[in-house]
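for the recovery benchmark. tokens below, seq after
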């Protein structure tokens, strides 16, 4: 029995060395390319070599809302102050049980109209439509039967008047120049069908009319760790995958899509919790299957400020929802696995998401259980294990800090000494503790993923 355990633990050790080597290699490439890209973008802006234009792509901003009376008015107000000329705002109230619709009607003096809606994409029926125009920007509020976030987005697409649409969460605020930046790839290349922006956490930030007046790390330490995690993800890996047209996710908090092709593929899938990822993967599959030239871009200069969960319970609920959506999408499009027909999407993007996103919670929890077993039967070299874990922690923390400080530097945010110290300390806790807590939560999510799969995920909203 002991011999078998020795053999088993030996090869488990080999597996984890290979697994971590692959993950670290990807992170190094991601952070390096991400940092270089941000630095080059800053030089272009500094020397005025970036694209300047007087042509504005007409855009519909769709804001799906469910019980968002606390934040939705501020979100719409922020949208009225964007440095952009040609856009409309469509808010879809998906059967809210609070005063989401009424606060919008009262604040923006919306009046009810009889407006037939052409359902190019199937969705639940509308109950009422309200409209007003403020500073030549049309605000449309649609009250509809509850059908979930994807269904609300599909309603927004049906209502939209313009050829491009942006999906924006009701607790989010766009930076003043976000629309200008996110449409630049479209003006440069006709093959662009979708663009994703950078999601930054807004908790405790001072943002006025889309301008960041004061940047600081929040008092809530859990939110601080999420900021470091976001930077490592959004600012690093997505820039790397962008080099091979391989991004499989455009965050539901801020993404731009070409409307006609989104309608052609059937819009957002109402049967999955990961409607944002599902749509992007569906666009990849559709275009490649039909030999359509296309590009899906990531635009780190287009910034959206969004609230992050401030309690561990809310964070776990959010990440479980994300993970179930990932599982549903990966399973639905499992034909992408090592399929030469889909090129880099199959052999780089899909494989990465499969191993280091979908399987990672199980692998990491299995690793923890293996360590416990090894310790129990006295088959572990404790000094070596501690040394190996410290290397992993420090290496991951350094990469997180590089991503964080690179973003702050290229966006001209001034950090206090206390914030710098806080970032250095908390990055170690994020990589060693929070990551494993989230791994357990995501793993357990699959055991009841069929429950409430079409309902909105809710977290407590606060005013900044």
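predicted aa per position
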């Amino acid at each position: 029995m002991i011999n078998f355990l020795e053999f088993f633990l030996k090869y488990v050790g080999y597996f984890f060395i290979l697994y971590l080597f692959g993950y670290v290699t990807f992170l190094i490439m991601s952070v390096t390319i991400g940092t270089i890209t941000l630095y080059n973008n800053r030089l272009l802006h500094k020397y005025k070599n970036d694209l300047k234009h007087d042509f504005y792509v007409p855009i519909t901003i769709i804001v799906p809302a469910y019980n968002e009376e606390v934040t939705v008015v501020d979100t719409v107000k922020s949208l009225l102050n964007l440095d952009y000329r040609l856009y409309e705002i469509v808010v879809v109230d998906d059967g809210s049980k609070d005063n989401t619709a009424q606060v919008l009607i009262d604040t923006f003096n919306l009046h009810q109209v009889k407006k037939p809606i052409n359902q190019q994409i199937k969705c639940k029926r509308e109950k009422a439509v309200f409209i007003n125009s403020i500073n030549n920007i049309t605000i449309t509020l649609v009250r509809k039967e509850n059908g979930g976030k994807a269904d609300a987005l599909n309603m927004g697409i049906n209502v939209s008047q313009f050829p491009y649409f942006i999906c924006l969460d009701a607790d989010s605020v766009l930076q003043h120049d976000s629309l200008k930046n996110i449409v630049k790839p479209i003006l440069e290349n006709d093959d662009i069908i979708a663009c994703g922006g950078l999601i930054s956490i807004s908790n405790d930030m001072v943002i006025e009319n889309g301008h960041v007046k004061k940047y600081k790390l929040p008092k809530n330490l859990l939110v601080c760790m999420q900021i470091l995690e976001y930077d490592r993800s959004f600012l690093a890996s997505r820039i790397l995958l962008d080099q091979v047209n391989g991004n499989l996710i455009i965050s539901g908090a801020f993404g731009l899509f070409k409307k006609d092709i989104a309608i052609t593929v059937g819009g957002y899938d109402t049967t999955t919790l990961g409607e944002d990822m599902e749509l992007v993967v569906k666009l990849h599959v559709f275009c490649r299957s039909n030999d359509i030239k296309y590009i899906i871009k990531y635009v780190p200069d287009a910034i959206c400020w969004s609230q992050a969960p401030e309690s561990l319970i809310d964070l776990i609920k959010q990440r479980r929802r994300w993970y179930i959506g990932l599982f549903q999408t990966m399973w639905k499009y499992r034909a992408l696995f090592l399929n030469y027909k889909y090129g880099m999407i199959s052999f780089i993007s899909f494989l990465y998401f499969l191993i280091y996103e979908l399987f990672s919670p199980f692998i990491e929890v299995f690793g923890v259980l293996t360590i416990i077993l090894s310790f129990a039967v006295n088959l572990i070299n404790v000094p070596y294990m501690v040394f190996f874990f410290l290397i992993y922690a420090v290496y991951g923390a350094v990469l997180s800090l590089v991503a964080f400080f690179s973003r702050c530097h290229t966006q001209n945010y001034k950090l206090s000494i206390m914030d710098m110290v806080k970032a250095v300390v908390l990055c170690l806790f994020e990589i060693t503790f929070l990551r494993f807590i989230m791994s357990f939560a995501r793993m357990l999510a699959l055991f009841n993923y069929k429950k409430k799969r079409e309902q909105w995920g809710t977290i407590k909203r606060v005013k900044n």
